[in-house]
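User: Hello, can you help with two protein structures?

Assistant: Certainly.
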Amino acid sequence: MKRDLDALMEVRGLDAFVVSGRTYGNPSLVYLLNGAAVTQGIVVKKRGEVPVFIHSPIERDEAAASGLPLVNMARYRFTEILRETGDRLKATVELYRRIFADLDVRGEVGFYGMADQGQAYLFLSALAEALPEIRVRGEYDEALLDVARATKDADEVARIREVARLTCEVVEETIAFLRRHRVKDETLVTDDGAPLTVGQVKDYVYQLMARRRLESPEGFIFAIGRDAGVPHSQGCPDDPIRLGQTIVYDIFPRRAGGYYFDLTRTFCLGYAPPEVERVYRDVAGCLDAVVAEARVGVEARRLQQVACAFFAERGYPTIAENPETEVGFNHLIGHGLGLAIHEEPVFTDVPSNTRTLQPGHVFTVEPGIYDPDRGYGVRLEDVVWIDEDGQVHNLTPLPKELVVEI
């Protein structure tokens, strides 16, 4: 949580940190700016002090919505520096020299945000050489802001709940849309008698999201039959919607610049084959078993172990026994959720993953069983939150139903 930033900085020995870049695709900057609708900027935080936002002069009103102390970037006259140096790298180093002098930043300084990797390397190397009073620090695993963002406060969870409500509405209206179609030769058809396709359903889903001001920057999954058996297949647009085939509907929208939700339901229209019924029961049982294991202090990797053991006991291949398996359970049990679709905590079952579940964690639980050669895939996904008192809450107010009557 944001309240933990100073403590995390102290543990890491940081005197200050900088987050910079454009806001789009830069969740750590969005996090510190409290969702302010700006396109870019630089946030500087010194340990024990409130972060300062250095913003574009044309976004001064939007910058004010961050609630942070503001500094207008025009104060540092970057264009004049660039004109004098004739070199953007040298000019950028000089810009930061002026910012750090103005804010009295010195010592161990961490750098975060979004930038081209080569540009970042050249800039930080040049900065370290030019400013001996600054010792550039970077982090690779469990970076400071990733850890802070992993635990959500009540306001963040309220925003996630709102996206959850809207996401569930979209799923319910999608199913209602499917039910409005006639059936001909085991296939849903449109008014002109042509087969309803995955592409047409997805077009309708995008309309549903747009009406609710939901963004879907990474698309979503609506895959039927064999494609449902490939976990991240988004579905073939030309595939017809047939009865009795598994449909994996995995949707992960967000509010503009804000928090994501993630939800998967698998269903068959009209009826389900007996094999699919059995697999569905096992996947639902695994979800319940994993959620039952989730509590404060449990190692995150334990949830992956529980899922693999559950499925192995029922005869399914898992990645615990064969990391290359393309059938059975072949992915992680879940992921942290917030301003990024995938964030801390991480559930990889390796000894180096010593993360434990903590109050404030919000994460998905999404077991699945897949067999594309047999023409099916089944995945169910709920979002779980552990509150400040250690109570576990399911944030997914949508029932699970394998067969959708048509």
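That covers the first. Now for the second protein you mentioned:
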Amino acid sequence: MIIYNGLNDIQPLVNAVVTSGTFDGVHLGHQTILARLTEVAQASGGESVLITYWPHPRTVVSNDSQNLRLLTSLDEKIELIDQAGVDHLVVIPFTRSFSELTSEQYIRQILIDKIGTKKLVIGYDHRFGRDREGGFEYIRAHQSEYGFEVEEIPRQDVDAVGVSSSKIRAALNEGNVRTANRLLGRAYNLTGTIVKGRQLGRTIGFPTANMQVDDPTKLIPANGVYAVEVEYGGQTLGGMLNIGFRPTVAGTHQTIETYIFDFDKDIYGEHMTLKFREFLRPEQKFDGLPALVAQLKRDEETARVVLDQK
């Protein structure tokens, strides 16, 4: 896949089949669109092109920008789009001035002049241009004038999947990783660097890896204990994860701490990825360390069973 950071380096393609959108999460609904995009491109002997935006448009134009958390970092989104078989990815920096482009300007300046679009494939509710004024009906009415065709993914095809980024965010905010994973078509993940914490886990037989997530805009699921798969150093390990404030030991800030099963290595400063498999229980305050340790042992047993079934 060829990646363009902005529009300066791209030249009009001979037979470009194009789609566009934020594609946060690259979930099952997005995958439906990408499958059709690549299918149309292959059938016509063309090249598939996806236009996306960074940062997420809502962080630029919406009043709730501080509260928006994303399902994928830019690097994760690029990797998933590449896996879908897209030929060209155009990442447009989303700014206030870009958000003011009318649908007519967007079509002529980007789709026609920059990319040379021959066919546009969009989801049934896709909108573009200032105030989301452009859409399928508008383009279809003018497609002979623009010199390219437009295809809308039927509503029933998208609705059959029953998925949206908002639904996935809501599920994760409730700790419902089972639903989130089903809608994503894969396990939700966090990637970050291992940093030193208070190291209390070592004193009670449960040493943990304290993660600092790479992308501060990435959504952290609800506080609680989870069964996770840990990808580190080219291997996949089992583990249990606690997200929260550690009330039993008077924690003062949220941490992301993983007890990796059957693992004993100093990995401070190194990277790892957590794949969420199951929510085990909410975070709670125990009556002292013995009660906490007893519960952690039960959590470990449950997490091992869960992961063995995956």
